[in-house]
Amino acid sequence: MSRNIRVVGIVMLAMFLALFGSSTYIQFVQEPQLVADGRNTRTLLESYEVQRGPILVDGTPIAYSQADDTSYMFQRVYTDGELYAPITGYYSANQGATGLEEAMNAELSGTADSQFFTSLRALFTGEEPAGAAIETTINPNAQQVAFDLLDGRPGAVFAYDPATGAILVSASSPSFDPNSLAMHDDAEVITNYNDLLNDPLNPLYNRAIAGNLNPPGSVFKLVVAAAALENGLATADSELDNPEEWTLPGSTSKIYNPNHGQKCGSDDKTTLRIALQYSCNIPFAQLAVELGDDKIREMAEAFGFNSSVDIPMESTPSYYPTDPLDDAQTALTGFGQYDVSATPLQMAMISGAIANGGEMIQPTLIEQVLTPSLQVIQGPQVESLGNVISSATATALTDMMQGSVADGVASNAQIAGVDVAGKTGTAENGEGEPYSLWFTGFAELDGQQVAVAVVLEDGGGMGQSGTGNGLAATIGQQVIKAVLEL
C-alpha cells in the first residue's frame, strides 16, 4: 500500500512540477511575445481602456485616440489616413495592428519599460492612464508630393537623410483608410478588411518597405559598379569591351543595350563611366561574369540585401540569389534581372551610403518619444551600420551618377543649381509583361541631404512603353525639390 502511495505521490509531484514549469515559462518567458502578438485581442481590448498616445508629423497628430460612449472607451482616429497609412498602419480590436501602431505599441499604450515610473505616478496622482506620443521624422510636404505624384498607380517612394537616418518620405500606392479598420463594429471591420485583402491592387501592401518585391533592373548596376571598384576590377575610366550584342555564356541567348543593337557610345571600347551614364547592359553583364556571383552577392549583402531592416517596422529583405549561379545567370544579375528583387527602402539605402561617403546609417521613423507630460523618453538616435564601401568608391560612384543626371539617361532628375546624382532602371518582369520603373539618387543643398528611391509597378500604367527616366526620375526629382524646399 505504502509503495502505491509513493508512486501516486511521485506522479502528482511530477504533474505539479510540469504545470508549474509550463505556467512559469508562459508567464515570464513567452509573456512579451504573447503581449506583442497582433492576434492577442485580449491585450488589444484591454489597451482601449487607456488613451493611446498620438502619432505626430511635425507636431500635428496623424493618429490619435478619441473618447467615445462605447465599452471600448476610446476610438482610434486617423487624419489623412491614406496619405500616412504606410507609416501609422492601423490599430484594430479584431484584426490586430500594423505599422507604427504595432512596432511602437508598448510606447503608444503606456506599457513600455521606459514609462514605468510615469504609470506608477499616475496611480498616486489619479491621472488618467495614457500612452506616449511618437513624433516621426516625416516631412509632411514631401510626403504629400510623393503621394500625389504616385496618383493611385501601384508603386512607392522612400526618402531619407543619409547623414542622420531620418526617414522623410514613405509613400505607398494604392493606399487605404485605416479608419475603416479602427471602428468598433466588428462585422463591418471584418468586411472592410476582407475587401482590402481581396483587392487585386493590394492596398494593404506597404510597397516602400515590403509587398511583392520588384526586380531592380538597372539601378542594381550601382551594386555591380561598387563591386568592380572595390575589387580593383575597373576604375571609372577603365576601357571595357563594347559589342553591339553579346551571347550569354553557355547559352544561345543574346542580350543588348537599351538602345537595341547599338554600342555603348560610338567607339569599340567604352568605360564604366559611360556604361553607367547611358545604362548599358552588356558592359555590366560582362563585369558581373568577371566578378563572379560570390563577389556580387558579398557587395549586395554589404548594402543590405538578404537582410531585414527595422525602421522600426520590419521590412521585407531585398534579395540576391543565395545559391551558386552559372555565368549566364550571373550576367543577368549584372543589370538587376534574373532572380534579383528589391524594395525602395533598400535602393535608397544604397544611394544614401554613396552620398554619405560609404557609411550607411540606419533609417528610422522615430524623431522622439514623449510622455503625456511632454517628458522626452527617447530622442533622435543615429545608428551607423558601418562603412560598406570606401570613400574613394563612393566619390567615384557619385561622380558617375551625377553624370547620368547631367548628361545621361537620368536627365529628368535635373534640378537647376543642384548637383543631383541618380540612376534609373527599367526592369523586365517576363515576356509581354509591363516593366517595373525605377529611380534612385541623392542631392544636398545648404546642409540638407536627401536620398530617394522610386518604383512604379505595371509600367506606371504604360505597360512596356514607360521608362525609369520618363516617369520614376520625374517623381524622384519632385520629391528631392520638396525636401530641399525648392
TrEMBL record:
One of its GO terms (cellular component) is plasma membrane. It holds the Pfam family Transpeptidase. Residues 155-477 form the Penicillin-binding protein transpeptidase domain. GO terms for molecular function: penicillin binding; peptidoglycan L,D-transpeptidase activity. Residues 52-134 form the Penicillin binding protein A dimerisation domain. Coiled coil: none annotated. GO terms for biological process: cell wall organization. PANTHER family: PENICILLIN-BINDING PROTEIN 4B (PTHR30627:SF24), PEPTIDOGLYCAN D,D-TRANSPEPTIDASE (PTHR30627). This is Penicillin-binding protein 2. It comes from Gulosibacter chungangensis.
